[in-house]
Amino acid sequence: MFQTIFYTIPSEKIPEGFDGYRIAHLSDLHGALHGTENCELLEEIDAARPQIVVMTGDMADESRQAIPLFLNLCRKLCMRYPVYFVMGNHEQCLKHRILSGLLQELGRLGVILLENRWCTVSYGGAFVKLYGLVTPLVYYKDPLGEYQRGIHFSADDTRKALGSIDDSCYNILLAHNPLYYPSYRDWGADLTLSGHVHGGVIRLPGIGGLLSPDLSLFPKYDGGHFEESGRHLIVSRGLGNRFLIRVRNPEELVIITLSRTGAGGMTGG
Hints:
Helix 5 (155-162) packs across helix 6 (181-187). Strand 2 (22-26), helix 1 (39-48) and strand 3 (52-55) form a beta-alpha-beta unit. Helices cover 21% and strands 27% of the residues. The longest helix has 14 residues, at 96-109. The protein has helices spanning 39-48, 66-78, 89-92, 96-109, 155-162, 181-187, and strands at 3-10, 22-26, 52-55, 83-85, 112-113, 117-123, 126-133, 171-175, 191-194, 203-204, 208-209, 224-228, 231-235, 252-259, 265-268.
């Protein structure tokens, strides 16, 4: 059973119209089901009353029924909310024909695809910018995949993919892999939403997550809320699992509230 985690993210840059604005953050579903046709997940999202739903990748993979289940979830969500999606490494690993079909169907359902592009989100007479970064597989540090040792995804690489940040407004970045968060931060993202690490799979009391997907120990950005240089990162521990069994690390739905004045951090769950 998943848990729901609430965060409040404060910033004077958040426009008045977005004060109290709620974002439901989904990541790393991997074909999991939470109730019949994900009814439990949908009910929990509805209970939080978000203004938008964002998905930060690995919602689908090559496992049996993962894509149909994901599309069915999106069909229901798009009837309720604006939905934004950025790919993770598992979507990128799909065969070209399957991935092309998936993206086409997501677009048909009304999901807004952010593949190295940005869009304006308007609300309450104001706007913020929402960016989606797709990091090439060579940067994922997967010892069994396409990773190229010795390379680093820099702030300049982020700029090349997305353009220069607009410092005149509040900027939210969807980026599946939190490993390169310092680059996203230095590029200028006020708030970055990520997944990928699954909370470190096994969580040790007082220490945190044990393993990252590249099998390195104690990943820094394993899950939760991080603040660096006045900018924020929230890493979802994910709604599903891929290989290893989670220990002290339940799946989670993340609900984020933007605040012009409130204290930051986790506010309940």
